[in-house]
Amino acid sequence: MAIENRPVTLRAIADQLGLDVSTVSRVLNGADADGRRAASGATARRVRELAQELGYRRNPAAVSLRTRRSNLIGVVFARLSEVVVATIYEGIEEEAARHGLAAFVTNTQDDPVRQRERIAMVLGRRVDGLIIGDAHLDGAALADPALGRTPHVLVNRRTEGDLPAVTCDDYRGGRLVAEHFLRLGHTRVGCVAGEPFASTGTDRTAGFVDRYAEAGLPVPADLVRHCAFDTTGGRGASTALLTADRRPTALFAVNDLAAIGVLGAARDLGLRPGEDLALAGFNDTPVAAELPVALTTVRSPMAEQGRIAVRELLRRIDGEPARSRRLAPELVERATSGRPVGPSLL
Hints:
The protein has about 350 residues and is α/β, with parallel strands linked by helices. It has helices at about 10-15, 20-30, 40-55, 60-65, 85-100, 110-125, 145-150, 170-185, 200-215, 230-240, 255-270, 300-315; strands at about 70-75, 100-105, 130, 150-155, 165-170, 190-195, 225, 250-255, 280, 295-300, 325, 330. It is about 40% helix and about 15% strand. α1 (about 10-15) packs across α2 (about 20-30) and α10 (about 230-240) packs across α11. The N and C termini lie far apart (about 70 Å).
């Protein structure tokens, strides 16, 4: 317990453990004045245990003055209400805390004007770095000169430029769905393709369409429908696809919310998922396995994207080049893809 209710100091902890104050500071505050990152291992555990026992409380203002860093990172997403985005942000917060950093998030609703405004607002908070999760392929909203002077990385989405981005390998994920449908014998397939400005939708769609083309079964352009990444968008796009003269026997929706919209359209049209229609989504959100007909989907490493994005951002903050990372997806087969409808086409 702290004596006489006075704040516990780094010096007090260091003296009790026989350590240098700078070592204790690196453990509890994330970095010292030279920018060195926190220690790890047995020494770090001893410092943290004693700090907790004594009731040590970090003083962010003092740390900022000493290190000339805010130890704060800003995060920009389209909508934190989406489970995929929320899961990525959990990974960001968890990893940031491990490095003695705090994170805060703002939403842009995928509106380019609001993207620019929110990025300017975040930069005004004197953040050490920025993680951007709502990038459009053209990267237009990322042209703020002030952003060029602040370390930043992308997460979940990439741009057509060379900005470092941590994403799922979305193209590979689309190919996995195509190969699954090909094994089941589906020759006429469609795609609920998401928004054309987002790499998540375009890359997943491209992987799916390219794999079918390689199998000698090109997907007609009218069987690829772009829509919002939500249930309403998925429902509208799939209704158009499933009422075509020669409706597809299988649909790939580029995220699970859109896939749930497809299930609603199928119900309204009297089609049974897994019997009259094969369906696959993307992300493997928690609801996917709990639907009345469990959803076949591609599992993406959502929280891990957030954790790795923080690590790559720290590389940039420390003056090192950040790397783009594409994390491996995994196909999860469930009831909505149904049984084979013909011989395997692989």
